[in-house]
Amino acid sequence: xxxxxxxxxxxxxxxxxxxxxxxxxxxxxxxxxxxxxxxxxxxxxxxxxxxxxxxxxxxxxxxxxxxxxxxxxxxxxxxxxxxxxxxxxxxxxxxxxxxxxxxxxxxxxxxxxxxxxxxxxxxxxxxxxxxxxxxxxxxxxxxxxxxxxxxxxxxxxxxxxxxxxxxxxxxxxxxxxxxxxxxxxxxxxxxxxxxxxxxxxxxxxxxxxxxxxxxxxxxxxxxxxxxxxxxxxxxxxxxxxxxxxxxxxxxxxxxxxxxxxxxxxxxxxxxxxxxxxxxxxxxxxxxxxxxxxxxxxxxxxxxxxxxxxxxxxxxxxxxxxxxxxxxxxxxxxxxxxxxxxxxxxxxxxxxxxxxxxxxxxxxxxxxxxxxxxxxxxxxxxxxxxxxxxxxxxxxxxxxxxxxxxxxxxxxxxxxxxxxxxxxxxxxxxxxxxxxxxxxxxxxxxxxxxxxxxxxxxxxxxxxxxxxxxxxxxxxx
Length: 476
Fold this sequence. Notes:
13 helices; 8-stranded mixed beta sheet; 25 strands; alpha/beta; 476 residues
């Protein structure tokens, strides 16, 4: 293990700058760093952002990226461009020893260097690693499941759906055709419903360009374990969404679970069996594993126990927000869900928490009074495909085109940077003037295949990954 260079070398008589470490480059990490770099005084502090990806993904646009309405590069924000005054370190934090004020990070060069992970020292830490997909021990899920949390997964799913239509169009085996045209989505939250709605809409449009595939040949199945979908938009809008999806011949199965998907056969708890080549898993998230490798307090669900000031409870110089943090919702009525009701782990809270967190961190550095985080939930909007949506905003319920328009307007206003806003708006404008793109670029996932065929007579399997470094200081 090597230690990162200590940047506290300052001129004699100059107070050392506070070292602020932000773990995570998502909503909370990026917005916190952005606000800090705007409001920090010259020489007051230095900000380091540790993130596994050099960009922030605006996840509400993933369904539209999967449907081809937005280019994938326009749903991500390059951190080095917007955080010019911060140090960006691409790597994965594997453990945090807050008692010693150190974080252990595996960078992209860790394996090649052969000297172990980097140890970064800090004075203040902001924990915003986000969440990861919550999977269950469903037989076959690890082999055949497709996630929908990253831009890579969204574009991969788009390519996969179009590829299945190509397979169905060219095969002479009815069983292969039926499996290729059956698409099963597990999870009735925003990710699952919006992804299914947008992709079904895209596939329905694409079918007109296939001589032997009609929209009614495709089978779309939504599996949800509870008795409702989209609980965030309210019961009435959730019921409407089920009716809307079923009117499009989408098979919505409530109070149903996926029990197995071995051998590419989706077996449901109600006894139904669907031979399928597409199983999309969007059944919830869980806190990032790095939280378990810290000495900070966590609740029963693995999230950091926080105060309404966005500090980690009972610990100094540690801050958290977003999916990783269990933040009390002080706007909720005292008798709503007891005294421990928490803010929902969603983007609406994360963006607003980041602003309060950055201001409180600055106030702590300057000996000023901290502010409690209080934001009453405004509501939710969801897209169900082109010109289709549902919304429940400030008590008002919208559906169809007005809800879809509000979905686009709201998220256009929220995506960071004027650059990204204009690019997304331009793409929407062009898509309204021209036909949809239905091209599959699945070969991008194997860019060397053609060269390997020309150079070596056939595609080669990818080389094995470099051997991991041996455990350091008891860390596996």
